[in-house]
Amino acid sequence: xxxxxxxxxxxxSRITGGTEAGVGEFPxxxxxQARNEHLCGGAILSEWWIITAAHCFYPQQLPPTELRVVLxxxxxxxxxxxxxxxxxxILHKDFQRVNMDNDIALLxxxxxxxxxELKEPICLPMEPGLSKxxxxxxxxxxxxxxxxxxxxxxxxxxAPMTIMNWDKCFKEFSKLTKNMLCAxxxxxxxxxxxxxxxxxxxxxxxxxxxxxxxxxxxxGRSCGLKxxxxxxxxxxxxxxxxxxxxxxxxxxxxxxxxxxxxxxxxKVSRASEFPKPGSPTLWLLPCLLPYxxxxxxxx
Length: 299
Ligand code: ARG
Hints:
Protein name: Serine protease 55
GO molecular function: serine-type endopeptidase activity
Order of helices and strands: EEEEEEEEEHEEEEHH
Bound molecules: arginine
Low-confidence stretches: 1-15, 255-284, 290-299
Keywords: Disulfide bond, Hydrolase, Protease, Serine protease
GO biological process, one term: flagellated sperm motility
Strand order of the largest sheet: 8-9-10-13-12-11
């Protein structure tokens, strides 16, 4: 599995400054679709849960039966797409359409994801604090420039990001709340755009190979304006919300639980997809076990 690299030889020719993502580079990335059309991005949180933005479901609130999630692919026109149905849409009850505060939603799938190199959960940050994030990327199938009738992309594009100081961003965006973060890229037009919403701002820490979900693509002023950041839902503020609502739905998200289910017999046998654990730590959250370190054979 390729990790995002800054220079892969490709030209930054697309309008939001993006380049095409490599196969398996963003294995947590999904397309949330309404009536078979791309609506928003999203990220795999666990075998049952997709994390996305609440505003994707406004003004039109479609029933879950009209929604689907496409996963494990960069190309939305691939002839063999893996599609999952959605049974429940959970919007944050304090989502505010006026200022986009609490722009977060969870989708429960109708059957669990079987992880492999192309489908992996992204980690949730364990402690608050943005200074530790060092290599950040956004990806999506959204528009490559802002405008009403701009087409969506069929191939996943990516762009590098840096997190901006909150106070500095607040000077530019007075609607900014403490549940938001700003990310852009100095002197470049790298940005997310319409249709990318719901997808993650994925970052690693200085040392790590693990990818963390730091922010949900939420809103912005136009797209790709130099030195104008995009605004993201600050995920670290929603740990307890995620824990609470996933518990209420009977499919609790937590590290311990995931350890439990991966060892259970009879359930989706994820055990067989993992390499023989050399140490017990390998049985922690699958997001902590990037397949890049795994010796597993891939058909
Ligand atoms: N609200 C947009 C969406 O629904 C995302 C906009 C992000 N804009 C930006 N300039 N970063 O897809």
